[in-house]
Amino acid sequence: xxxxxxxxxxxxxxxxxxxxxxxxxxxxxxxxxxxxxxxxxxxxxxxxxxxxxxxxxxxxxxxxxxxxxxxxxxxxxxxxxxxxxxxxxxxxxxxxxxxxxxxxxxxxxxxxxxxxxxxxxxxxxxxxxxxxxxxxxxxxxxxxxxxxxxxxxxxxxxxxxxxxxxxxxxxxxxxxxxxxxxxxxxxxxxxxxxxxxxxxxxxxxxxxxxxxxxxxxxxxxxxxx
Length: 225
What we know:
Elements lengths: L4 H15 L5 E7 L7 H20 L15 H27 L2 H7 L2 H18 L10 E7 L4 E6 L1 H4 L8 H13 L2 H19 L16 E3 L3
Parallel strand pairs: 1-2, 1-4
Antiparallel strand pairs: 2-3
Helix pairs in contact: 1-8, 2-3, 7-8
């Protein structure tokens, strides 16, 4: 997914229009991906390497290398089976690690809960990094989107959160997420900004004589880390 120059201009115009009716400040940030999820290949490789030999054993399949010494004792005869199991585990670990390390596979096999946690963490980092907590009335609202995860997060500063429950933003985030899944982030941003603007205009209307534009209105696009 990408945002074209015309998309960026349209989103900026939506932010400007929404902020004209409120003392709130809407700030949009886009990340290509919130994490490389390096633990995912390791977890899958370890799981496959441990489970496959166990499942073979439960199924009655015994692993063994060729018996080069028929006269071995029982203890000695067990060594080839143990070595075969260890060798199988090593091969399974390496093959799975390489396969799941491919970006599309790794992304698909990462649990949704972990993706959500990383998106929330990155959103909180951006909220502070972009100084949304330093607006005069503490009325900054961050709309954070991650393309790879197709997830969105909204963070409202203290001045808003004290008066508006988090569920109020659910509709805006649901529309944003639906458009992300359809592959149309520009439409998602436009709809979410309008919905957020309506909430802000109702709860925090603009003062015609004192309504400074404290934060940039353009979309910030973060480079892939």
